[in-house]
Amino acid sequence: ILIVLTAGVIALTATARAIVPGWLRGTIERVAGEAIGREVKIAGAFDLSISLTPTVAGSDVTLANAPWGSEPLMVRAGRVEISIDLVSLWSRPLRIRDVVIDDVHVLLETSSQGRGNWAFETKPGTGRPAEPSTRPSFSIERAAVRGLELVVRARPDALPFRAGIAALDGGVDSATQMIEV
């Protein structure tokens, strides 16, 4: 009986590891894309570690630019990794333990009508408007960006301004609640 139960657990775990990441990748792309009105794509490897602090990691992550943009992509990231506190999904606010983004290129530009590509086409909510809250809906405990290139184009005919950051790491000190960078 013990051997059969062990084999069942192993088979169930292997099946979940094979099915859940593919389903979750598609769900993340769809929900994020619908929320901001642009295509979000995870074209590379995708992994999920299951624990009380699950981690989702994807490579070759992109966010489409505005239709009028000078390039098809607004954001390209070589790798994005996010760890959340599973219990906070029910207790709110959502606690994001870690966000790590590697090799990211961000293009910020303004159209000839003065509209920024960072203004997303969000869908209006249905039903009653939410009551304003003094509590944030999520918190990020630690964030790291490595290899950032920022390109800013103030006007379509302007030369782009480029800036980069080799590495930036910040987090909230649990004892003082101060941000350490």
From the N-terminal CA to the C-terminal CA, the straight-line distance is: 54 Å
Q: Tally the helices: what do you get?
A: 2
Give the percentage of residues in beta strands.
Answer: 35-45%
The residue-averaged pLDDT reads 86
Helix % is 10-25%
Order of helices and strands: HEEEEHEEEE
Gyration radius, in Å: 20 Å
Q: How many strands?
A: 8
The main β sheet shows up as: 8 strands, mixed
Flag low-confidence runs. none
Overall body shape: globular
Structural class: alpha+beta
Would you kindly provide a written description of the structure presented here, covering whatever features stand out?
This protein is α+β, with helices and mostly antiparallel strands and 181 residues long. It has two helices and eight strands, in the order αββββαββββ. Strands 1, 2, 3, 4, 5, 6, 7 and 8 form an eight-stranded mixed sheet that branches. The longest helix has 35 residues, at 2-36.
Quick take:
With 181 residues, this protein is α+β, with helices and mostly antiparallel strands. Helix content is 22%, strand content 41%. It is globular.
Observed structural traits:
181 residues; alpha+beta; eight-stranded mixed β-sheet; 41% strand; globular
